[in-house]
C-alpha cells in the first residue's frame, strides 16, 4: 500500500549533517494551501516521490543532494520550483497560480 506520509512536525532525531531534507510550503493568494499534491522530480522530470501538504501548506522530502524540481498541483492552480539541494535543510516556497 502506498500513501503520502503526514506532513509538518519537527525534524527531531534527523541528523542534518548527513541527511538532505527538502521542505517548504505551498501558497496561493497569500495563504497556505492545504491538501495540495507536491511531487519531487529529478533532472529528467522523472517522478521520485509525492506528498500531500499539511493544513499549513507544508511538505517535506528526504532526498539525495543534487538538482531537483518540486511541483505542486492543487485545485487552485499549479506551480513549481527548481532547486539545488545540499546535505542539510533546504527550504523553498511554491506559489501556485
Automatic annotation (TrEMBL):
GO terms for biological process: carbohydrate metabolic process. Signal peptide: none annotated. It holds the Pfam family DUF1416. InterPro entries: DUF1416, Ig-like_fold. Gene3D superfamilies: Immunoglobulins. This is DUF1416 domain-containing protein. It comes from Blastococcus tunisiensis.
